Amino acid sequence: MVSVSVLRHVAFEDLGILCDLFNELGWTVEYIEAPNADWVDFDPIEPDLLVILGGPVSVNDEQSFPFLGPEIISIKKRLEADLPTLGICLGAQLIARALGAKVFKAEEKEIGWKPLLISGSAQKSPVSYLSATQCSMFHWHGDSFDLPVGAVLLAGTDACPHQVFSWGRATLAFQCHPEVRGYDLEKWFVGHAVEIQTASGTSVSKLREDTQRYAAGLERCGRLFFEKWLSELGL
User: What is the spatial distance between Cα 206 and Cα 213, in angstroms, rounded to a whole number?
Assistant: First the structure.
């Protein structure tokens, strides 16, 4: 049976459609609450798949949130073993940092729905299911990162060109959120209410309206993407 360990930073940013998929496959899933995890006992090599989810903190906030240091060390060990690893939003930034890349404040926040621009390298990869011709993508981030050495850029946006990259045999990182389910986003709107109020160009009503328009398409294409990617990993 395939085992999945999930590093979670806030409760409402969970596996989304991956939860449904893993349940259907009969895989075992263990959530590890990163802020108060026992990093001494955590073995990043043990699970068949490691998923690193998003959260509102920055990779650069180690002084305020000391758990980030041992989390990055654990991720680095996983990457050195070149085992199946998926990072989403903060998870992608943690992977980038573990690979030695710089993480920094983006010129503008991306909050809401916007299509991905797929690179030539992604045309024949599972990421092609997430192209602008197939669906719109959900975004929620204020940081960005340099492309790590050895990584392959797969997708971006005009405001944030480094959105999706692969590294090694089995690592994939998403700055954006291919995992979200539309009905789950109401929890995000509550959890991030202060950020929405202070962000320019967005509102809960706008986010809710766009979610009703685009979420079903992303759920459909995201499912096709994840099924294909996991199959190519041999999981």
Answer: 11
